[in-house]
Design brief:
The chain is of the alpha/beta class. It has a single domain, classed as Rossmann fold (3-Layer(aba) Sandwich). Helix content is about 45%, strand content about 15%. The protein has a six-stranded parallel β-sheet, sandwiched between helices. The longest helix is centred in the N-terminal third of the chain and has 13 residues. The termini are far apart. The mean pLDDT is about 95. The structure holds NADP nicotinamide-adenine-dinucleotide phosphate (NAP).
Length: about 220
């Protein structure tokens, strides 16, 4: 663990509840920022660590900006929030970005007493059975599945029924959080850039400038 990463983990010395915001952030947008802020407040978290994936195991279509661009955009977008941090844990690791390796790493830094909440999109969590070491991930962290209103919640309930012995256990491990701002999506933003349509107000102003300055998603 390098000095910068160490500072993140020490930043809130007495942290007891830590949010891990996992995503490709291609690019980060206001839906992600509202999601993290909402999780912080609803789940009484001490901090949220954004972890951009380096090499997502499930993505092969080539429309992904470089990991350094996605990382820098995430740092820029979160810089003004004292409770938000950005980790290079997946970027610094060689090979595919498996969530199990990230959660194991954070568990070893924070110890057994701290509650870890892995926050990501509900559609991503629906695929958790295909992730590496599903059972171990679930034993190490709780999950916050962020959805937009109108999302078919039955799919998450079906997943819980498959993963857990009873409803109570499932309800204590996977939480659904509705975030109206998640009507914004990275796919739409990339399409807009490609089609020369505006992305103002969908992403922080600095991110809009970054995308143009570095010629991303053209
Ligand atoms: P994705 O499949 O690109 O995204 C699925 C949906 O979730 C999209 O609508 C996406 O919206 C949304 N989303 C993604 N991250 C979000 C976040 N933090 N908050 C709110 N909404 C979010 O998913 P992904 O971004 O590649 O992966 C999500 C996380 O799951 C990452 O941490 C990844 O490493 C992990 N994962 C692990 C494995 C594994 O270990 N084998 C496999 C797959 C995913 P946007 O496109 O607008 O972001």
């Amino acid at each position: 663990m390098d000095k910068y990463e160490n500072n993140i983990y020490k930043a809130k010395g007495k942290a007891r509840r830590v949010g891990i915001m996992g995503g490709t952030f291609n690019p980060i947008h206001h839906g992600h920022l509202v999601t993290a802020q909402e999780a912080l407040s609803q789940f009484n978290l001490d901090l949220v660590i954004f972890i951009p994936t380096a090499d997502p195991p499930h993505k092969t279509d080539g429309s992904i900006a470089s990991m350094e661009d996605r990382y820098l955009m995430t740092v820029i977008a979160t810089a003004s929030n004292n409770d938000f941090f950005v980790s290079r844990i997946e970027i610094n690791r060689k090979g595919k970005s498996y969530t199990i390796d990230t959660v194991r790493g954070l568990r070893s830094v924070y110890g057994k007493e701290v509650s870890l909440y892995f926050i990501t999109g509900a559609d991503a969590i629906l695929e958790i059975l295909t992730w590496k070491n599903t059972e171990e991930i679930i034993s190490l962290a709780k999950f916050i599945a962020a959805t937009r209103p109108g999302y078919n919640l039955a799919k998450i309930e079906d997943l819980k029924a498959k993963l857990f012995k009873n409803k109570r256990e499932g309800d204590d491990k996977i939480f659904i959080m509705e975030v109206p701002a998640l009507a914004i999506s990275s796919t739409d933003i990339r399409n807009r850039v490609r089609q020369k349509r505006p992305i103002d107000y969908l992403v922080p102003e600095e991110i809009s400038h970054y995308i143009i300055k570095h010629g991303l998603y053209k």
